[in-house]
Design brief:
Elements lengths: L3 H12 L21 E3 H19 L3 H16 L5 H15 L4 H21 L7 E3 H5 L2 H19 L9 H27 L54
Antiparallel strand pairs: 1-2
Amino acid sequence: MSTPGRLSSVREWMFGWDVNTPRERPLPPVEIDVGRWVPAWVVRVVAGLAVLAAGLLLTADPTQLALAAALGVGVAIGPQGAIPMIALVAGIIAFAAREPSPTVGAGLLLCLHGMHYLTRRVSGLSPRARVELVALRRGLVPALVVQGFGQLVGVVVWFLPGPASPFPWLAVLALLAITVLVLVGVRALRAAEAGPGPRRLPAKPSRGTTGSTPAGPGGDRTSSGAPPQDGGEPPAARPTWRSVDPDA
């Protein structure tokens, strides 16, 4: 008489698996429709090129350009790490250390903001991942508003009248008003892109439940509020959201 262990060994040798052991069934193939997309590595490369373009705007020194290129490569390799923040801080410091120029400032703001926008869209994705164009456009309108506000501030600061002008406070008030309007507009745009939240429907009581006191131990009314029948026990209360009999 053969033992179950030997039978299992024979089945495993013949069929490659033991018929008594439950197997995990493979998931059926699923086809997913996606819109227009670009590889994530393309977005990474564009973000790195934005860092290199910022370096070209700031300096012509070969050593500093090599440093900017290294930061661009680091941004393309690790968009979710600390390298994008390092590139952002380095660009601001390099701009503050040189002679101010409105053209360089506008270009630097565009490059660094674009790098930050792109790295956030591919953060945590593998280079071979597919990034839909719809996902890249999500949040684009608030980003353009912030970019336009930054460019406007740069223009106002550059052409700000000197201390001899009798109206310097008008520029300050204009900046404050623009700041408030931009903040309110960005919040409204983000709320519009997020869409309305889930609707909460009011809870409805179950059938047979009224505003009367439900039957309890020794009570003399039913769940509908009617008195019990003559000489009989009151019927058990139906389980409702107000009172549920655990023994029912």
